[in-house]
Amino acid sequence: MKYPIGIQSFETLRKDGYVYVDKTDLVYKLAQGHVYFLSRPRRFGKSLLVSTLKAYFEGRKDLFKGLMIGFLENKWTEYPVLVFDFNAIDKDVPNSLINYINQVLSETEAKYNLPCFDTQDISLRFRTLIPRVHEATGKRVVVLIDEYDKPLLDLLETGNPDDDKKLSVNRQLLKNFFSVFKSVDDHLRFVMLTGITKFSQVSMFSGFNQPDDISFEEDYEALCGITQIELEAVFDESIQELSASLHVSQEEALALLKQNYDGYHFSTRMTDVYNPFSVINALKKRNLEDYWFASGTPSYLVRLLGNTPEDVMSYTNRGYTRDMFVNYKADSSKPLPMLFQAGYLTIKGYDKDFNTYRLDFPNKEVKQGLITLLANNYLGQEYEMTSTLVSIVRALRDGDLEQVRKLFTGFLAETPYSMRPKKDQKDRELYFHYTFYLLMRLISCYTVYTEKQLSEGRADCIIETPKYVYIFEFKLDGTADEALQQINERGYARAYEADARAQYIIGASFSSKTGTIEEWKIEQNE
Question: Is pLDDT at 456 greater than 70 in this prediction?
Answer without folding.
Answer: no
